[in-house]
Amino acid sequence: xxxxxMPTNVRYSERxxxxxxxxIFINQMVNWDRTSRHFAEAPLAFTFxxxxxxxxxxxxxxxxxRRRTNWARWMTLAAQFAMMFVIGFSFGFIAIKGNPEGTTxxxxxxxxxxxxxxxxxxxxxxxxxxxxxxxxRA
Length: 138
What we know:
Low-confidence stretches: none
Radius of gyration: 17 Å
Number of helices: 5
Mean pLDDT: 85
Number of strands: 0
Oligomer: single chain
Helix content: over 70%
Strand content: under 5%
């Protein structure tokens, strides 16, 4: 780009995003019975979707952190708040239904990864990170 060094908060954001992706992977390994059941239902589709989801996430991190795309930074923040809404809605649905399908450990992993993603998104909007996303024309 223009030789500017990456701000610390942007670097931490990238690391937290990759850590959240690792937590999701660990969740799938810990809850292998559910993962293997989904795999048994449609092995090709499950594998394809897992690989595609991972590639899209890595591409998105590259787009935000390395490519310094401002609109992707805003979309990241909006997606995190949407994810928090979905988790909150799921909690309400489980409370009404009274029969959760997932384990408590799976829920803990989901909350932890969402917190990591949200913190990573918020770090992109700190004072030292914002100039990183400004246009080079400015």
